Amino acid sequence: MFTLFIKLLDRLFERGTRQVAQRSSRRGALVRIGKLFVASAFVLPVLPFDRTGQAFAAQDAKRKQTKDDTRCDYWRYCAQDGYLCACCGGSATTCPPGTEASKVSWVGTCRNPDDGKDYLISYNDCCGKTSCGRCMCATSERERPGYRLGLHNDINWCMANDSSVFHCTTALVVGLAEGEA
Hints:
Elements: H1 2-23, H2 26-43, H3 52-62, E1 81-83, E2 100-101, E3 106-111, E4 118-127, E5 136-138, E6 166-176
Antiparallel strand pairs: 1-5, 2-4, 3-4, 4-6
């Protein structure tokens, strides 16, 4: 009885599969999948994002300090993601010896608590040596999703250099944010 049921089920699925195969092609399936991807590319940017992190980041901005650049709460590190060069033989603005600054970077806007102004900070990875392994900071104030690459910090920015090996990250002040001048 059970084997008869299995045979009947097998024939049913085989017949259905053959009918689908006769009415469709691999190329048609690829076209449908492609249309789905294109449609989702237009929908994804408007999907809701969890913005609670931005509220917490605003609170953290009030607790930033300006003295010790080897701590994650240093004001320039508001969008930092990586090991601090200040702990790895360099400084907040210079790469350690034996490494070179990445040719591309991401940008953040950080508030200096001493003067209350917002500054543009360029985060440059230092490339050419294996990861430093000291003072890992992963703050992401005002970070944007991966489709806005210039504002996204979860990318290996050493990809444009001769050596794509990441070592640490610097935080260079490149100017006042718009409206602060």
